[in-house]
Design goal:
Chain A has 11 helices and 4 strands. By secondary structure, chain A is mainly alpha-helical. Chain A has one domain. In chain A, helix 2 packs parallel to helix 4 and helix 5 crosses helix 6. In chain B, helix 7 links the parallel strand 7 and strand 8. Chain B has 10 helices and 10 strands. Chain B has 2 domains: 160 residues, Rossmann fold; 65 residues, no CATH class. The chains are: A mainly alpha (312), B alpha/beta (237).
Chain lengths: 312, 237
Protein backbone atom coordinates (compact mmCIF):
# COMPACT_ATOMS: atom_id res chain seq x y z
CA UNK A 1 0.00 0.00 0.00
CA UNK A 2 2.73 2.38 0.98
CA UNK A 3 4.72 1.57 -2.14
CA UNK A 4 1.65 2.23 -4.25
CA UNK A 5 1.15 5.63 -2.64
CA UNK A 6 4.81 6.43 -3.10
CA UNK A 7 4.67 5.63 -6.83
CA UNK A 8 1.51 7.70 -7.18
CA UNK A 9 2.99 10.77 -5.53
CA UNK A 10 6.33 10.47 -7.33
CA UNK A 11 4.48 10.32 -10.63
CA UNK A 12 2.28 13.24 -9.67
CA UNK A 13 5.25 15.40 -8.69
CA UNK A 14 7.19 14.60 -11.86
CA UNK A 15 4.15 15.10 -14.03
CA UNK A 16 3.43 18.50 -12.51
CA UNK A 17 7.09 19.57 -12.66
CA UNK A 18 7.53 18.67 -16.32
CA UNK A 19 3.97 19.64 -17.26
CA UNK A 20 4.47 23.18 -16.00
CA UNK A 21 7.50 23.46 -18.27
CA UNK A 22 5.49 22.17 -21.25
CA UNK A 23 2.99 24.86 -20.39
CA UNK A 24 5.67 27.57 -20.53
CA UNK A 25 6.71 26.43 -24.00
CA UNK A 26 3.11 25.94 -25.14
CA UNK A 27 2.38 29.59 -24.30
CA UNK A 28 4.88 30.73 -26.92
CA UNK A 29 3.27 28.63 -29.62
CA UNK A 30 -0.21 29.75 -28.69
CA UNK A 31 0.58 33.47 -28.40
CA UNK A 32 2.23 33.63 -31.81
CA UNK A 33 -0.58 31.59 -33.35
CA UNK A 34 -3.15 33.86 -31.72
CA UNK A 35 -1.68 36.91 -33.40
CA UNK A 36 -0.09 35.75 -36.66
CA UNK A 37 -2.07 32.51 -37.23
CA UNK A 38 0.92 30.36 -37.97
CA UNK A 39 2.87 27.74 -36.04
CA UNK A 40 6.31 29.03 -35.18
CA UNK A 41 8.29 25.82 -35.66
CA UNK A 42 11.45 27.60 -34.54
CA UNK A 43 9.98 28.03 -31.05
CA UNK A 44 11.38 24.74 -29.70
CA UNK A 45 14.84 25.85 -30.82
CA UNK A 46 14.55 28.91 -28.61
CA UNK A 47 14.01 26.45 -25.72
CA UNK A 48 17.27 24.77 -26.75
CA UNK A 49 19.12 28.08 -26.91
CA UNK A 50 17.79 28.95 -23.45
CA UNK A 51 19.20 25.74 -22.01
CA UNK A 52 22.56 26.15 -23.72
CA UNK A 53 22.96 29.81 -22.89
CA UNK A 54 22.24 28.90 -19.26
CA UNK A 55 24.83 26.12 -19.43
CA UNK A 56 27.51 28.38 -20.90
CA UNK A 57 26.78 30.98 -18.22
CA UNK A 58 26.89 28.47 -15.39
CA UNK A 59 30.17 27.06 -16.65
CA UNK A 60 31.80 30.43 -17.20
CA UNK A 61 30.70 31.54 -13.73
CA UNK A 62 32.64 28.53 -12.44
CA UNK A 63 29.84 26.33 -11.13
CA UNK A 64 30.83 23.38 -13.29
CA UNK A 65 33.15 21.78 -10.78
CA UNK A 66 31.47 19.69 -8.09
CA UNK A 67 33.11 21.54 -5.18
CA UNK A 68 32.19 25.05 -6.33
CA UNK A 69 28.79 25.38 -4.68
CA UNK A 70 26.65 27.97 -6.39
CA UNK A 71 25.22 30.78 -4.26
CA UNK A 72 21.42 30.89 -4.05
CA UNK A 73 21.08 33.75 -6.48
CA UNK A 74 23.15 32.08 -9.24
CA UNK A 75 20.14 30.30 -10.70
CA UNK A 76 18.05 33.46 -10.66
CA UNK A 77 20.80 35.43 -12.38
CA UNK A 78 21.26 32.78 -15.04
CA UNK A 79 17.50 32.56 -15.54
CA UNK A 80 17.20 36.30 -16.13
CA UNK A 81 20.16 36.47 -18.51
CA UNK A 82 18.96 33.47 -20.52
CA UNK A 83 15.45 34.94 -20.74
CA UNK A 84 16.77 38.32 -21.86
CA UNK A 85 19.11 36.79 -24.44
CA UNK A 86 16.38 34.58 -25.89
CA UNK A 87 13.93 37.47 -25.87
CA UNK A 88 16.40 39.37 -28.04
CA UNK A 89 16.87 36.35 -30.32
CA UNK A 90 13.08 35.99 -30.63
CA UNK A 91 12.85 39.67 -31.56
CA UNK A 92 15.55 39.27 -34.20
CA UNK A 93 13.97 36.14 -35.67
CA UNK A 94 10.63 37.90 -36.04
CA UNK A 95 12.20 41.03 -37.46
CA UNK A 96 14.46 39.28 -39.98
CA UNK A 97 12.49 36.19 -40.97
CA UNK A 98 8.78 36.77 -40.39
CA UNK A 99 8.16 40.50 -40.70
CA UNK A 100 9.18 40.65 -44.39
CA UNK A 101 6.50 38.01 -45.01
CA UNK A 102 3.62 39.94 -43.48
CA UNK A 103 0.77 39.58 -45.95
CA UNK A 104 2.39 36.60 -47.67
CA UNK A 105 0.45 33.30 -47.78
CA UNK A 106 0.61 31.41 -44.50
CA UNK A 107 2.35 28.44 -46.09
CA UNK A 108 5.34 30.63 -46.98
CA UNK A 109 5.66 31.74 -43.36
CA UNK A 110 5.36 28.14 -42.15
CA UNK A 111 8.14 26.97 -44.45
CA UNK A 112 10.26 29.90 -43.33
CA UNK A 113 9.70 28.86 -39.71
CA UNK A 114 11.04 25.40 -40.50
CA UNK A 115 14.02 27.06 -42.16
CA UNK A 116 14.67 29.22 -39.10
CA UNK A 117 14.42 26.11 -36.93
CA UNK A 118 17.07 24.26 -38.96
CA UNK A 119 19.25 27.36 -39.00
CA UNK A 120 19.15 27.73 -35.22
CA UNK A 121 19.76 24.02 -34.60
CA UNK A 122 22.75 23.81 -36.84
CA UNK A 123 24.25 27.18 -36.02
CA UNK A 124 24.09 26.20 -32.37
CA UNK A 125 26.22 23.15 -33.10
CA UNK A 126 29.11 25.17 -34.54
CA UNK A 127 32.24 24.49 -32.52
CA UNK A 128 32.72 28.12 -31.46
CA UNK A 129 29.14 28.26 -30.15
CA UNK A 130 27.77 25.30 -28.21
CA UNK A 131 29.37 22.43 -30.12
CA UNK A 132 27.94 19.13 -31.21
CA UNK A 133 28.35 17.06 -28.05
CA UNK A 134 26.00 16.73 -25.11
CA UNK A 135 26.98 18.45 -21.86
CA UNK A 136 26.10 18.21 -18.23
CA UNK A 137 24.34 21.13 -16.53
CA UNK A 138 26.14 22.08 -13.31
CA UNK A 139 23.86 21.66 -10.33
CA UNK A 140 22.89 25.08 -9.05
CA UNK A 141 20.65 23.86 -6.24
CA UNK A 142 21.52 21.49 -3.40
CA UNK A 143 20.18 18.03 -4.13
CA UNK A 144 18.28 17.68 -0.89
CA UNK A 145 14.71 16.48 -0.68
CA UNK A 146 12.53 19.27 0.63
CA UNK A 147 10.00 16.95 2.16
CA UNK A 148 8.70 13.44 1.73
CA UNK A 149 5.08 12.65 0.91
CA UNK A 150 4.25 8.97 1.52
CA UNK A 151 7.85 8.10 0.78
CA UNK A 152 7.96 10.22 -2.39
CA UNK A 153 10.79 12.74 -2.32
CA UNK A 154 9.82 16.27 -3.24
CA UNK A 155 13.12 17.67 -4.48
CA UNK A 156 14.10 21.31 -4.35
CA UNK A 157 14.70 21.35 -8.12
CA UNK A 158 11.10 20.34 -8.83
CA UNK A 159 9.64 22.87 -6.43
CA UNK A 160 11.82 25.70 -7.73
CA UNK A 161 11.18 24.68 -11.35
CA UNK A 162 7.43 24.38 -11.09
CA UNK A 163 7.26 27.42 -8.79
CA UNK A 164 9.15 29.57 -11.28
CA UNK A 165 6.95 28.34 -14.10
CA UNK A 166 3.80 29.15 -12.14
CA UNK A 167 5.10 32.60 -11.19
CA UNK A 168 5.90 33.37 -14.83
CA UNK A 169 2.45 32.20 -15.88
CA UNK A 170 0.73 34.30 -13.23
CA UNK A 171 2.76 37.26 -14.50
CA UNK A 172 1.77 36.55 -18.08
CA UNK A 173 -1.88 36.16 -17.13
CA UNK A 174 -1.73 39.57 -15.41
CA UNK A 175 0.01 41.13 -18.40
CA UNK A 176 -2.52 39.84 -20.91
CA UNK A 177 -5.75 40.29 -18.99
CA UNK A 178 -5.06 43.30 -16.78
CA UNK A 179 -2.79 45.72 -18.61
CA UNK A 180 -3.23 48.10 -21.51
CA UNK A 181 -0.58 46.28 -23.52
CA UNK A 182 -2.32 42.96 -22.90
CA UNK A 183 -5.60 44.45 -24.06
CA UNK A 184 -3.86 45.57 -27.23
CA UNK A 185 -2.45 42.05 -27.70
CA UNK A 186 -5.91 40.54 -27.39
CA UNK A 187 -7.31 43.12 -29.80
CA UNK A 188 -4.58 42.41 -32.37
CA UNK A 189 -5.23 38.70 -31.98
CA UNK A 190 -8.94 39.16 -32.60
CA UNK A 191 -8.73 41.57 -35.52
CA UNK A 192 -5.39 43.02 -36.55
CA UNK A 193 -6.62 45.72 -38.90
CA UNK A 194 -9.26 47.08 -36.53
CA UNK A 195 -6.69 47.09 -33.72
CA UNK A 196 -4.52 49.32 -35.87
CA UNK A 197 -7.49 51.67 -36.34
CA UNK A 198 -7.64 51.98 -32.54
CA UNK A 199 -4.11 53.34 -32.64
CA UNK A 200 -2.36 50.11 -31.70
CA UNK A 201 1.07 49.80 -33.29
CA UNK A 202 0.56 46.27 -34.56
CA UNK A 203 4.19 45.61 -35.45
CA UNK A 204 5.30 46.61 -31.97
CA UNK A 205 2.73 44.27 -30.42
CA UNK A 206 3.90 41.40 -32.63
CA UNK A 207 7.55 42.03 -31.70
CA UNK A 208 6.62 42.14 -28.03
CA UNK A 209 4.74 38.84 -28.35
CA UNK A 210 7.84 37.17 -29.76
CA UNK A 211 10.02 38.62 -27.01
CA UNK A 212 7.72 37.37 -24.25
CA UNK A 213 7.18 33.95 -25.84
CA UNK A 214 10.91 33.46 -26.36
CA UNK A 215 11.77 34.55 -22.83
CA UNK A 216 9.30 31.99 -21.45
CA UNK A 217 10.83 29.34 -23.72
CA UNK A 218 14.29 30.17 -22.40
CA UNK A 219 13.05 29.79 -18.84
CA UNK A 220 11.56 26.40 -19.74
CA UNK A 221 14.80 25.27 -21.37
CA UNK A 222 16.87 26.28 -18.37
CA UNK A 223 14.51 24.77 -15.79
CA UNK A 224 14.26 21.57 -17.82
CA UNK A 225 18.03 21.18 -17.88
CA UNK A 226 18.16 21.78 -14.12
CA UNK A 227 15.89 18.75 -13.70
CA UNK A 228 17.40 16.58 -16.45
CA UNK A 229 21.01 17.69 -16.26
CA UNK A 230 22.23 15.93 -19.38
CA UNK A 231 21.69 18.59 -22.05
CA UNK A 232 21.67 17.19 -25.53
CA UNK A 233 23.40 18.91 -28.44
CA UNK A 234 21.31 21.62 -30.16
CA UNK A 235 20.28 19.51 -33.18
CA UNK A 236 19.32 16.44 -31.13
CA UNK A 237 15.91 14.98 -31.87
CA UNK A 238 15.08 14.91 -28.16
CA UNK A 239 14.62 18.67 -28.19
CA UNK A 240 12.24 18.42 -31.09
CA UNK A 241 10.18 15.93 -29.04
CA UNK A 242 10.03 18.38 -26.13
CA UNK A 243 8.86 21.10 -28.50
CA UNK A 244 6.33 18.79 -30.12
CA UNK A 245 4.80 17.85 -26.79
CA UNK A 246 4.47 21.49 -25.87
CA UNK A 247 2.88 22.11 -29.25
CA UNK A 248 0.44 19.28 -28.57
CA UNK A 249 -0.33 20.95 -25.24
CA UNK A 250 -1.15 24.18 -27.05
CA UNK A 251 -3.44 22.40 -29.52
CA UNK A 252 -5.13 20.34 -26.80
CA UNK A 253 -5.78 23.51 -24.83
CA UNK A 254 -7.11 25.28 -27.93
CA UNK A 255 -4.47 27.00 -30.03
CA UNK A 256 -4.54 30.74 -29.46
CA UNK A 257 -5.97 30.31 -25.96
CA UNK A 258 -3.60 31.42 -23.19
CA UNK A 259 -5.26 29.62 -20.29
CA UNK A 260 -5.80 26.57 -22.49
CA UNK A 261 -2.06 26.33 -23.14
CA UNK A 262 -1.29 26.43 -19.41
CA UNK A 263 -3.80 23.71 -18.55
CA UNK A 264 -2.88 21.71 -21.67
CA UNK A 265 0.79 21.69 -20.65
CA UNK A 266 0.10 20.33 -17.18
CA UNK A 267 -2.32 17.77 -18.63
CA UNK A 268 0.27 16.50 -21.09
CA UNK A 269 2.89 16.24 -18.35
CA UNK A 270 0.57 14.26 -16.07
CA UNK A 271 -0.62 12.02 -18.89
CA UNK A 272 2.92 11.23 -19.95
CA UNK A 273 4.15 10.38 -16.45
CA UNK A 274 1.09 8.47 -15.30
CA UNK A 275 1.05 6.50 -18.54
CA UNK A 276 4.72 5.71 -18.12
CA UNK A 277 4.32 4.67 -14.48
CA UNK A 278 1.13 2.65 -14.73
CA UNK A 279 0.98 1.31 -18.27
CA UNK A 280 4.33 1.21 -19.99
CA UNK A 281 7.36 3.49 -20.13
CA UNK A 282 7.94 2.52 -23.73
CA UNK A 283 4.82 4.30 -24.89
CA UNK A 284 5.29 7.60 -23.03
CA UNK A 285 5.30 9.60 -26.27
CA UNK A 286 2.42 7.59 -27.64
CA UNK A 287 -0.01 8.74 -24.92
CA UNK A 288 0.68 12.35 -25.78
CA UNK A 289 0.10 11.96 -29.49
CA UNK A 290 -2.87 9.65 -28.97
CA UNK A 291 -4.47 12.45 -26.95
CA UNK A 292 -3.72 14.85 -29.79
CA UNK A 293 -5.47 12.54 -32.25
CA UNK A 294 -8.49 12.18 -29.95
CA UNK A 295 -8.78 15.92 -29.43
CA UNK A 296 -8.44 16.62 -33.14
CA UNK A 297 -11.13 14.02 -33.86
CA UNK A 298 -13.67 15.05 -31.26
CA UNK A 299 -12.86 18.64 -30.31
CA UNK A 300 -10.79 20.10 -33.14
CA UNK A 301 -10.85 23.57 -31.57
CA UNK A 302 -9.18 22.15 -28.45
CA UNK A 303 -10.59 21.50 -25.00
CA UNK A 304 -10.85 25.20 -24.15
CA UNK A 305 -10.95 26.75 -27.61
CA UNK A 306 -13.94 28.28 -29.29
CA UNK A 307 -14.94 26.77 -32.59
CA UNK A 308 -14.30 29.43 -35.19
CA UNK A 309 -15.60 29.80 -38.67
CA UNK A 310 -12.98 30.55 -41.25
CA UNK A 311 -13.49 34.17 -42.36
CA UNK A 312 -14.15 34.67 -46.05
CA UNK B 1 -11.39 75.37 -44.88
CA UNK B 2 -10.68 72.06 -46.55
CA UNK B 3 -9.95 69.41 -43.95
CA UNK B 4 -9.49 66.35 -46.13
CA UNK B 5 -8.45 66.43 -49.73
CA UNK B 6 -8.16 63.44 -52.04
CA UNK B 7 -6.56 64.12 -55.40
CA UNK B 8 -6.59 61.67 -58.28
CA UNK B 9 -6.66 58.70 -55.91
CA UNK B 10 -6.02 55.30 -57.46
CA UNK B 11 -6.26 51.94 -55.72
CA UNK B 12 -5.54 48.50 -57.13
CA UNK B 13 -6.53 45.21 -55.52
CA UNK B 14 -4.25 42.90 -57.46
CA UNK B 15 -5.46 43.16 -61.05
CA UNK B 16 -8.64 45.01 -60.07
CA UNK B 17 -8.57 48.78 -60.50
CA UNK B 18 -10.85 49.66 -57.58
CA UNK B 19 -10.50 53.46 -57.62
CA UNK B 20 -9.80 55.33 -60.83
CA UNK B 21 -8.65 58.85 -60.17
CA UNK B 22 -11.02 59.87 -57.40
CA UNK B 23 -10.91 63.44 -56.07
CA UNK B 24 -12.92 64.38 -53.00
CA UNK B 25 -12.76 67.31 -50.63
CA UNK B 26 -14.26 67.51 -47.17
CA UNK B 27 -14.77 70.95 -45.65
CA UNK B 28 -14.31 71.36 -41.93
CA UNK B 29 -17.50 71.09 -39.88
CA UNK B 30 -19.46 69.38 -42.62
CA UNK B 31 -21.05 65.99 -43.16
CA UNK B 32 -19.96 64.69 -46.54
CA UNK B 33 -21.38 61.45 -47.89
CA UNK B 34 -20.25 58.99 -50.51
CA UNK B 35 -23.12 57.09 -52.06
CA UNK B 36 -23.23 54.50 -54.78
CA UNK B 37 -23.92 50.85 -55.49
CA UNK B 38 -22.21 47.92 -53.81
CA UNK B 39 -18.66 47.63 -55.07
CA UNK B 40 -18.47 51.20 -56.37
CA UNK B 41 -15.41 51.83 -54.19
CA UNK B 42 -16.91 53.79 -51.28
CA UNK B 43 -15.32 51.72 -48.52
CA UNK B 44 -12.07 51.59 -50.45
CA UNK B 45 -11.83 55.37 -50.19
CA UNK B 46 -12.20 55.24 -46.40
CA UNK B 47 -9.66 52.42 -46.14
CA UNK B 48 -7.15 54.38 -48.16
CA UNK B 49 -7.66 57.49 -46.01
CA UNK B 50 -7.17 55.68 -42.69
CA UNK B 51 -4.12 53.81 -43.96
CA UNK B 52 -5.58 50.32 -44.03
CA UNK B 53 -4.66 49.99 -47.68
CA UNK B 54 -1.97 51.69 -49.72
CA UNK B 55 -3.13 53.63 -52.79
CA UNK B 56 -1.26 53.04 -56.02
CA UNK B 57 -1.44 56.69 -56.95
CA UNK B 58 -2.72 60.13 -55.99
CA UNK B 59 -2.57 62.26 -52.88
CA UNK B 60 -4.37 62.26 -49.53
CA UNK B 61 -4.00 65.47 -47.54
CA UNK B 62 -5.40 65.93 -44.04
CA UNK B 63 -5.24 69.48 -42.66
CA UNK B 64 -2.45 70.21 -45.11
CA UNK B 65 -0.36 67.15 -44.19
CA UNK B 66 0.14 64.22 -46.53
CA UNK B 67 -1.08 60.87 -45.19
CA UNK B 68 0.72 58.84 -47.83
CA UNK B 69 2.66 55.90 -46.45
CA UNK B 70 1.61 56.48 -42.84
CA UNK B 71 0.40 53.47 -40.83
CA UNK B 72 -3.14 53.62 -39.35
CA UNK B 73 -1.98 54.21 -35.77
CA UNK B 74 -0.18 57.37 -36.82
CA UNK B 75 -3.05 58.63 -38.93
CA UNK B 76 -5.34 58.24 -35.91
CA UNK B 77 -2.88 60.36 -33.92
CA UNK B 78 -3.44 63.20 -36.40
CA UNK B 79 -7.14 63.28 -35.45
CA UNK B 80 -8.81 60.98 -37.94
CA UNK B 81 -10.84 57.99 -36.69
CA UNK B 82 -12.42 55.29 -38.84
CA UNK B 83 -15.42 53.14 -37.90
CA UNK B 84 -14.93 50.27 -40.35
CA UNK B 85 -17.46 48.32 -42.33
CA UNK B 86 -19.00 45.60 -40.17
CA UNK B 87 -18.33 47.72 -37.03
CA UNK B 88 -15.08 45.99 -36.06
CA UNK B 89 -16.13 45.18 -32.52
CA UNK B 90 -13.74 43.01 -30.51
CA UNK B 91 -16.35 40.40 -29.65
CA UNK B 92 -14.16 38.56 -27.13
CA UNK B 93 -13.47 41.71 -25.12
CA UNK B 94 -15.95 43.42 -22.84
CA UNK B 95 -17.76 46.58 -23.87
CA UNK B 96 -15.62 48.44 -21.34
CA UNK B 97 -12.40 47.07 -22.85
CA UNK B 98 -13.58 48.03 -26.32
CA UNK B 99 -14.04 51.61 -25.11
CA UNK B 100 -10.62 51.53 -23.44
CA UNK B 101 -9.11 50.60 -26.80
CA UNK B 102 -10.84 53.58 -28.37
CA UNK B 103 -8.80 55.80 -26.07
CA UNK B 104 -5.65 53.69 -26.52
CA UNK B 105 -3.39 56.56 -27.57
CA UNK B 106 -4.61 59.06 -25.01
CA UNK B 107 -2.73 59.80 -21.85
CA UNK B 108 -5.22 62.15 -20.16
CA UNK B 109 -7.36 59.87 -17.96
CA UNK B 110 -9.40 62.85 -16.77
CA UNK B 111 -10.29 63.88 -20.33
CA UNK B 112 -11.05 60.30 -21.28
CA UNK B 113 -13.42 60.03 -18.31
CA UNK B 114 -15.24 63.18 -19.41
CA UNK B 115 -15.46 61.97 -23.01
CA UNK B 116 -16.81 58.66 -21.74
CA UNK B 117 -19.62 60.52 -20.01
CA UNK B 118 -20.45 62.21 -23.33
CA UNK B 119 -20.48 58.83 -25.07
CA UNK B 120 -22.82 57.46 -22.38
CA UNK B 121 -25.12 60.44 -22.97
CA UNK B 122 -25.26 59.68 -26.69
CA UNK B 123 -25.58 55.94 -26.12
CA UNK B 124 -27.16 55.12 -22.75
CA UNK B 125 -27.42 51.45 -23.78
CA UNK B 126 -23.65 51.17 -24.00
CA UNK B 127 -23.26 52.24 -20.40
CA UNK B 128 -25.71 49.58 -19.20
CA UNK B 129 -23.63 46.85 -20.80
CA UNK B 130 -20.06 47.77 -19.86
CA UNK B 131 -19.17 44.43 -18.27
CA UNK B 132 -20.72 42.30 -21.01
CA UNK B 133 -18.70 40.62 -23.77
CA UNK B 134 -19.14 42.91 -26.76
CA UNK B 135 -20.07 39.94 -28.96
CA UNK B 136 -23.30 39.52 -27.01
CA UNK B 137 -24.62 42.96 -28.03
CA UNK B 138 -27.28 43.35 -30.70
CA UNK B 139 -26.32 44.77 -34.09
CA UNK B 140 -27.57 48.24 -33.18
CA UNK B 141 -25.76 48.25 -29.87
CA UNK B 142 -22.55 47.13 -31.58
CA UNK B 143 -22.86 50.01 -34.02
CA UNK B 144 -23.31 52.43 -31.13
CA UNK B 145 -20.32 50.93 -29.37
CA UNK B 146 -18.25 51.23 -32.54
CA UNK B 147 -19.12 54.92 -32.95
CA UNK B 148 -18.69 55.67 -29.25
CA UNK B 149 -15.33 53.91 -29.24
CA UNK B 150 -14.14 55.97 -32.21
CA UNK B 151 -15.25 59.21 -30.49
CA UNK B 152 -13.04 58.39 -27.50
CA UNK B 153 -10.03 58.94 -29.75
CA UNK B 154 -11.25 62.55 -29.99
CA UNK B 155 -11.18 62.70 -33.78
CA UNK B 156 -11.64 65.95 -35.68
CA UNK B 157 -12.68 63.87 -38.70
CA UNK B 158 -14.80 60.75 -38.30
CA UNK B 159 -15.05 58.21 -41.11
CA UNK B 160 -18.22 56.13 -40.90
CA UNK B 161 -18.65 53.08 -43.10
CA UNK B 162 -22.27 51.93 -43.55
CA UNK B 163 -23.43 52.69 -40.01
CA UNK B 164 -27.03 51.78 -40.88
CA UNK B 165 -26.27 48.42 -42.46
CA UNK B 166 -28.46 45.61 -41.14
CA UNK B 167 -30.31 47.75 -38.61
CA UNK B 168 -34.05 47.96 -38.04
CA UNK B 169 -35.65 51.13 -39.52
CA UNK B 170 -36.17 52.69 -36.11
CA UNK B 171 -32.53 52.19 -35.19
CA UNK B 172 -31.48 53.64 -38.52
CA UNK B 173 -33.33 56.83 -37.53
CA UNK B 174 -31.54 56.87 -34.18
CA UNK B 175 -28.12 56.38 -35.75
CA UNK B 176 -28.65 59.24 -38.19
CA UNK B 177 -29.92 61.50 -35.42
CA UNK B 178 -26.73 60.76 -33.54
CA UNK B 179 -24.57 61.41 -36.60
CA UNK B 180 -26.18 64.86 -36.79
CA UNK B 181 -25.55 65.40 -33.10
CA UNK B 182 -21.88 64.42 -33.33
CA UNK B 183 -21.49 66.80 -36.23
CA UNK B 184 -23.27 69.58 -34.33
CA UNK B 185 -20.74 69.14 -31.53
CA UNK B 186 -17.99 69.99 -34.00
CA UNK B 187 -16.76 66.76 -35.55
CA UNK B 188 -16.45 66.64 -39.32
CA UNK B 189 -17.89 63.47 -40.83
CA UNK B 190 -17.21 61.51 -43.99
CA UNK B 191 -20.06 59.04 -44.33
CA UNK B 192 -20.32 56.04 -46.63
CA UNK B 193 -23.89 54.78 -47.05
CA UNK B 194 -26.05 52.55 -49.18
CA UNK B 195 -29.11 54.16 -47.67
CA UNK B 196 -28.86 57.15 -49.99
CA UNK B 197 -32.15 58.67 -48.80
CA UNK B 198 -30.95 59.04 -45.23
CA UNK B 199 -27.41 59.94 -46.22
CA UNK B 200 -28.53 62.81 -48.45
CA UNK B 201 -30.87 64.02 -45.73
CA UNK B 202 -28.11 64.32 -43.17
CA UNK B 203 -25.19 65.40 -45.38
CA UNK B 204 -24.20 68.86 -46.58
CA UNK B 205 -22.34 67.62 -49.62
CA UNK B 206 -22.47 64.35 -51.52
CA UNK B 207 -20.43 62.38 -54.03
CA UNK B 208 -21.93 59.66 -56.22
CA UNK B 209 -19.58 56.83 -57.09
CA UNK B 210 -19.85 54.42 -59.97
CA UNK B 211 -17.34 51.62 -60.59
CA UNK B 212 -14.45 53.35 -58.91
CA UNK B 213 -14.97 56.87 -60.20
CA UNK B 214 -16.92 59.96 -59.12
CA UNK B 215 -20.05 60.18 -61.29
CA UNK B 216 -21.22 63.52 -59.91
CA UNK B 217 -21.12 65.61 -56.77
CA UNK B 218 -22.75 68.65 -55.27
CA UNK B 219 -24.76 69.92 -52.33
CA UNK B 220 -26.70 66.97 -50.89
CA UNK B 221 -30.02 68.77 -51.20
CA UNK B 222 -29.46 69.35 -54.93
CA UNK B 223 -28.48 65.74 -55.58
CA UNK B 224 -31.55 64.54 -53.70
CA UNK B 225 -33.65 66.44 -56.24
CA UNK B 226 -31.73 65.38 -59.33
CA UNK B 227 -33.65 62.98 -61.58
CA UNK B 228 -30.66 60.80 -62.24
CA UNK B 229 -29.91 60.26 -58.54
CA UNK B 230 -33.58 59.76 -57.71
CA UNK B 231 -33.87 57.10 -60.38
CA UNK B 232 -30.67 55.23 -59.68
CA UNK B 233 -30.27 55.51 -55.91
CA UNK B 234 -33.41 56.73 -54.22
CA UNK B 235 -35.85 54.22 -55.64
CA UNK B 236 -38.02 56.76 -57.45
CA UNK B 237 -38.80 55.44 -60.91
Amino acid sequence: MNAALQTFFETLINGLAVGSLYALVALGYTMVYGILKFINFAHSDIVVLGAWIAFVLARSLGYATPDAAAPWYAGLLILLVAMTACGAIGYAVERLAYKPLRGAPRLNVLITAIGVSLFLQNTGQLSFLFGASPQRMPSLLPDTPLLTVFGARVSLVDVVGAGTAVLLMVGLEYLIFHTKLGRAMRAVSYNTSVASLMGVNVNAVISFTFVVGSALAAAAGFLYSMKYVGIKQPADAGWVMLGLKAFVAAVVGGIGNIRGAMIGGVMIGLLEFFGAAYVSTQYRDVYVFALLILVLLFRPAGLFGRATVEKV
Amino acid sequence: MTMLLLEDLNVHYGAIHALRGVSVSVEQGRVVTLIGANGAGKSTILRAVSGMIRPSGGRIMFEGKSLSGQPPHQILRLGLAHVPEGRGIFANLTVDENLELGAYQRSDPEGVRRDREKVYELFPRVKERLKQAAGTLSGGEQQMLAIGRALLARPRLLLLDEPSLGLAPQLVQTIFRIIREINAQGTTILLVEQNANMALAVAHHAYVLEVGAIRMHGPAADLAKSDEVRKAYLGHG
